[in-house]
Amino acid sequence: MTQIWVLGAVLCLFGSAYADEVCYDGLGCFSDLPPWGGTKERPLAKLPWVPGMIETRFLLFTPKNKYYHEIKADAKIMKVTNYNKLKATRFIIPGYLEAKDEDWAQHMCKDMLKWDSVNCIAMEWKAGVRAPYAQAANNARVVAAQVAHMINFLMGNYKQTADKFHIIGHSLGAHAAGEVGRLVPNLARITGLDPVEPYFQGASRDVRLDTSDAAFVDVIHTDSLPFTKNKLGLGMSGNMGHIDFYPNGGELMPGCSKNSGSPSNLDGIWEGNVNFDGCNHARAYQYYSESTVKAHGFVAYPCPDKESFAAGMCFPCTGASCPLMGQSAIKFNLTSVPTGTKFFLTTGKKEPFGRYSYRAKVLLDGSVWPNPGFMYISLKGDREETESIQLHVGMLSPGFYELLINTDKDVGEIKEMTFQWNNHIFNPIKPTYSASRIELVRGKDNKTYNFCGGDRVGEKVIQSVPPCKT
Ligand SMILES: *[C@@H]1O[C@H](CO)[C@@H](O)[C@H](O)[C@H]1NC(C)=O
Ligand SMILES: *[C@@H]1O[C@H](CO)[C@@H](O)[C@H](O)[C@H]1NC(C)=O
Predict the structure, then answer these.
(1) Pairwise CA distance, residues 455 & 400, whole Å
(2) Is there an atom of ligand 2 within 6 Å of 328 CB?
(3) How far does CA 241 lie from the centroid of its chain?
């Protein structure tokens, strides 16, 4: 092995055009021949850097250590850690790094440990990722081999089996996770967080993340516009896992602006030299982190496309048709939906991102003279209540008003609703209105609530609308 390494390194001295393979101790050999390089999707053929230049680190978090413990594939080092062989182990592999959020993988481990008793290993390879893109894409292969080496070590040292390991990768890290799965068969799960597009979309299954890499592969798409045509979407489009999630349609996230820059600047974007905030791309791991703490804000609806979802055509869920995006996606019974199903959901602009969905249908009773104004409703549950939600603005006249509600409050079982209205301009006639009936359907399970309002109320008076007495 060492001999071949020397050969590869020597060949490197004569320029990469001649070097087609490098081998690194304990990690195996890396070729720059197709499918790894010199293909339509991967025009620049690059050999990965030596591990020392990539500076990979394994940072272990457990319920017993608040701060990380850097580990190595070494029994003596592991002995003094809190690694628990009876628990599952998760690796988190970052890729693209947002300058202001470089240590997100460590934060995700901390979030996970609030609820789950697991070994969480945050990976770091900042030196290897901050390289010209084609180089970084190949350096990720070494990181994958290092993770595979660590898993093989842990399986030997602790008699663990591959089905105890879950790899979570963002961007280039998602494909590195896929590569770990190719090297270590029968992993429990791989989560691809907006797997990066350039050099991977359309490439061989051996190169990119796909369903053969683990027993369960779940993917979250947040920046899936094409990279070309000035769209600069960094994430892959189209289903690629056993289950694929498209929050907010999967292309542009609320609270983020459209990506901008010059498409020829892939290297610059990657190395942080171009003004590019990566907001859409980074949302994938932000949603996932939140899902480890508040799973139920991420109910996802099977739907043919984002337009049908936005039009409310895939609302509500029935039976067990809806998975939860994020950590709890594994609980979903995949055989209950056809393969190729896409799952859609709505999130907020900022934390908390999770949303709870309802459809309200309000029967307005009151003055028959059309009157310009505003109407609001709110939901009161046994846990929390929502703010007032605008139901309608424009002419108020008796009849039905319907609204899809996405609230950031997990209100629990709904006990009561409220109704309120305001005039748009001063109205000397002093009209009165009542929400005489409200039918509320909960998105996650199609549970229907019926509320009946009483007397009409004047402007700005809150009407309580309790459950109907039947
Ligand atoms: C999963 O769904 C299939 C088809 O709907 C059903 O036959 C099967 O019993 C379900 N499995 C579990 C574990 O619920
Ligand atoms: C939801 O439940 C209602 C009955 O409460 C039923 O009429 C309707 O078909 C259900 N919706 C779906 C999508 O199954």
Answers:
(1) 18
(2) no
(3) 13
The ligand whose atoms approach the alpha carbon of 320 most closely is: 1
Q: Compute the distance from residue 439 Cα to the ligand 2 centre, in Å.
A: 13
Is the pLDDT at 146 greater than 60? The verdict is yes
Q: Quick check: CB of 319 below 6 Å from ligand 1? A: no
CA distance 314 to 304: 8
Using a 10 angstrom Cβ sphere, with 0-12 exposed, 13-18 middle and 19 or more buried, the burial of residue 91 is buried
Q: Which domains does the chain have, with CATH numbers?
A: 32-345 (3.40.50.1820), 356-465 (2.60.60.20)
Q: What is the pLDDT of residues 34-51, one digit of tens each?
A: 999 999 999 999 999 999
Q: 182, 210 in Cβ contact below 8 A? A: no
359 CA to centre of ligand 1 in angstroms: 28
Annotated binding site: 208, 210, 213
**Residue pLDDT, tens place only, 217-243:** 999 999 999 998 788 999 999 999 999
3-state SS, 267-309, equals HHHHHCCCCCCCHHHHHHHHHHHHHHHCHHHHECEECCCHHHH
Residues tagged active-site: 171, 194, 281
